[in-house]
Amino acid sequence: MKPEDFLLVQPQQDRALAKFRKMVDAGIEILAESGFAGLTTDAIAARAGVNISTFYKYFPNREALVRYLAVDFIDKQTASMLAVIDRMPPDAPLEVVIPAMLDAAVDDWAGNAASRALQGSFILDPVLYDAYSRSSQDVAVALQPFMAVWNIEGNFEDWDRMHSVFGDSAIVLFDRAAKAEPDEQAKVVTQLKKLAVAYFKTAVRT
Fold first, then answer.
1. What CA–CA distance (Å, rounded) separates 16 from 63?
2. Which is it for the CA torsion 54, 57, 63, 67, positive or negative?
3. Contact (Cβ atoms closer than 8 angstroms) between residue 138 and residue 82
4. What distances in angstroms separate CA 85 from CA 3, 9, 172, one per listed residue?
5. Per-residue pLDDT of the chain (206 residues; tens, 9 = 90+)
6. Domain assignments of the chain as residue spans, ordered by start
């Protein structure tokens, strides 16, 4: 699944790309300021300075824009975590790799003004939930070489399932962090990292 899957057509020329980018940026700004309640197609067009027909040329409705933004967010967050894994030495311990991945995910989340609104959509929208689940699978594949180093029991199917379960839990915890004040956010993220390490350690052979 790609962000472009939710578009009616893709912008091609520079002028069209500029208008499209303005609408995407407008959607992010409105979500950051007033959440889904303020995200109307008229508000998006007005903020972007385009005709409403321009919006409907690319998006069938506001939900399509939300899905576009959310999948783009997931893709970038997943890429950041995969980059962390790729930089790790082959003998890096679980206690280093897992928190570093989550730090990268949090950095992406904190750098997206609409993340507070979008985080909840992963829980409520089955399409976005599916996209989030596939992200967990991508991370599981990238971490597969560490299974032997960490002495993980079971096969890859078991490992993949662990990531899917943790991904489901992380959606809820990130949503809680997104709605909290900065001090509380930091505490929730710290607990999330401790939970992640403890959870994956349950698969280590003793």
1. 21
2. negative
3. yes
4. 24, 35, 23
5. 788 999 999 998 999 999 999 999 999 999 988 888 899 999 999 999 999 999 999 999 999 999 999 999 888 888 999 999 999 999 999 999 999 998 888 877 777 777 777 877 877 888 888 888 888 888 889 999 999 899 998 888 888 888 888 887 877 777 777 677 778 888 888 888 898 999 999 999 87
6. 8-60, 66-201
CA distances from 45 to 10, 28, 37, 140 (A): 17, 13, 15, 40
CATH number for the region 8-60 comes to: 1.10.10.60
Q: For helices 14-34 and 115-124, give the axis angle rounded to 10 degrees.
A: 90
- Whether CATH 3.40.630 fits 66-201: no
- Given a contact cutoff of 8 angstroms between Cβ atoms, the answer to whether 98 and 200 are in contact is yes
Answer for the pair 45, 3: CB distance below 8 angstroms, yes or no. no
